[in-house]
Amino acid sequence: MTKIVIIGAGFGGVAVAARLLREGHDDLIVLEKADRIGGVWRDNTYPGCACDIPAPLYSYSFAQNPSWSRRFPPHQEILAYLERCAGELGVTARTRFGTEVTAADWDGARWVISTAAGERIEADVLIPAVGQLSRPSIPALPGAGDFRGVAVHTAHWTPDVPVDGRRIAVIGTGASAIQLVPAIAGQAAHVTVFQRTPPWTLPKPDRRYGRARLAAYRRMPALMRASRAGTWLLTLVTGAAVTGNRFADSAVRGVSHLQRRLQVRDPELRAKVTPDDPMGCKRVLFTNAWLPTLARPDVDLVTEKIVAVTEDGIRTADGAHHPCDVLVYGTGFAATEFLVPIRVTGRDGTDLAEVWRDGAHAYLGVTVPGFPNMFLVYGPNTNTGNTSVIYFHEVQARYIAQAVRRIAAGSKPLEVRAERAAGYDEEIQSRLATSVWTGCRSWYRTAAGRIVTNWPGKAQEYRRRASRLDPADFH
Ligand code: NAP
Fold it and tell me: Fewer Cβ neighbours under 10 Å: the N or C end of the chain?
């Protein structure tokens, strides 16, 4: 029987494990370093944390949920949904918690996986599903070590981070910070937000789901599928706006301008929050509360460069000192460093970190020459700025299941042809070179500027190209 090891029990790992179990691949384990299913939805518990893609789409197509409380549910609901799916689909029972993978080595016939506890586990097929947003990035600010208050990254938030009556500094204005700040303003004595570049925002079409709607969903699941399809159509518009459709771009841009005009009366503040980089070069953020929160008297938006952290605050380039008791890093994730810190060596001892030295790449984001029988979930260039990554996970799960079927039937390792992978990468990178994502610094790009996270086209194109494994692509 083909032995399969999946690393990571987030949305991606659960999707592929569920697919393989459904196809009868029983010799499968999921190795999860934490003590719970959930990935980013287990790790991110900061106040205000919620979905920013409507839940009917940010969920599995095969497990639509008739119980969402609202269109953009809070993180606890998404985590509970994922845990329920993992349990019902048999994935939890196959998961070994508290097992951190440190290395994976191809020994010529099998993968040998090493864990932090010193265990060695053999597998025919290795499926890393560790996500792109699992390792927090904290800038090395001068003096950060001297800070005497509480310093915390949004992804490391715990319930005992003090907020009540405290002066809180938040560095960053990305998706995490724009959810956190409105949730703590008013409870904190004061919030100072440090913005390097303003994000593009759009109104969040959030709404509570009433009892009648939920009852109808339970009685007629087709209605849930219709709601999912409606959401999908909406994301096509925002997707078109960032992938070159001029009409969609100016329509969405107009809505964003109108939001700033209506929500920010003070022209000075409005100027500070008006982006001047191309819309969509970073993630466009859905929010109703961010701009009004910045206008509150107990919230300051600082746009001066941070020069140092002091014992009790932050100093900016204009010489001002901004005292704080709690320092929150909303500074994002090391998204371009795929699989770090796991050391992976493939055929002939090839080091994956070396292969990816100038930026990670993989054929269809899934498979890498020199690394037989290894298939990534949410690998390089499979992120989407506008629709749901879970859609991509499901496509990858289907593709990987085809690969596993072949491996199980054939007994020979499956390795993608180097020339196919190189040609694919050239195509993807040349399309990305003219994309909106080249327009600014973001977690999509390496320090050298290569875009390693994002898929260049529409989600449907990815689905079409990865829906069927072509044996000619492999040795
Ligand atoms: P992020 O989008 O990468 O934002 C990081 C922020 O920190 C940016 O504003 C960045 O400024 C700022 N920053 C970084 N280093 C800095 C420094 N040295 N000095 C000053 N500012 C600095 O990170 P994130 O907000 O955690 O979001 C990451 C991704 O997670 C999102 O794009 C989204 O995909 C996902 N997410 C999803 C949800 C959800 O609702 N589903 C919620 C949260 C996050 P610049 O813009 O100038 O670089």
Answer: N
Residues with CB under 6 A from ligand 1: 50-52, 133, 139, 154, 171-177, 179, 194, 196-197, 282-283, 306, 330-333, 441, 443
Residue 227 C-beta-side C-alpha neighbours within 13 Å: 22
Of all protein residues, the one whose alpha carbon is nearest to atom 2 of ligand 1 is 174
Rounded to the nearest whole angstrom, what is the distance from the C-alpha of residue 332 to the centroid of ligand 1? 4
C-alpha closest to that of 193 among 170, 216, 222: 170
Q: Whose CA is nearest to atom 3 of ligand 1?
A: 332
* Ligand 1 centroid – CA 329 distance (Å): 9
Name the CATH superfamily, with its identifier, for domain 4-134+334-473: FAD/NAD(P)-binding domain (3.50.50.60)
Closest CA to 358 of 331, 391, 343, 336: 336
Task: Please indicate whether the domains covering 4-134+334-473 and 144-208+212-329 agree at the CATH topology level.
Answer: yes
Structurally, at CATH architecture level, domain 144-208+212-329 sits in 3-Layer(bba) Sandwich (3.50)
**Residue 50 in this model has a pLDDT that exceeds 80:** yes
Q: What is the DSSP string of 200-235?
A: PEE-----BPPHHHHHHHHH-HHHHHHHHHHHHHHH
> For 131-167, how does the pLDDT look when each residue is reduced to its tens digit (9 = 90+)?
999 999 999 999 999 999 999 999 999 999 999 999 9
Phi/psi for 403 (5° steps) reads -65, -45
Run of H or E including 239? helix 221-242
Q: Give the C-alpha separation, 444 to 174, whole Å.
A: 13
Closest CA to 403 of 360, 371, 374: 374
Ligand 1, atom nearest to 51 Cα: 40
Helix or strand holding residue 175 (H, E): helix 175-184
Q: Are 208 and 70 in contact (CB under 8 A)?
A: yes
Residue 368 scores a pLDDT above 90: yes
Q: Looking at ligand 1, which residue's alpha carbon is closest to its atom 14?
A: 331
Distance of CA 94 to the CA centre of its chain: 24
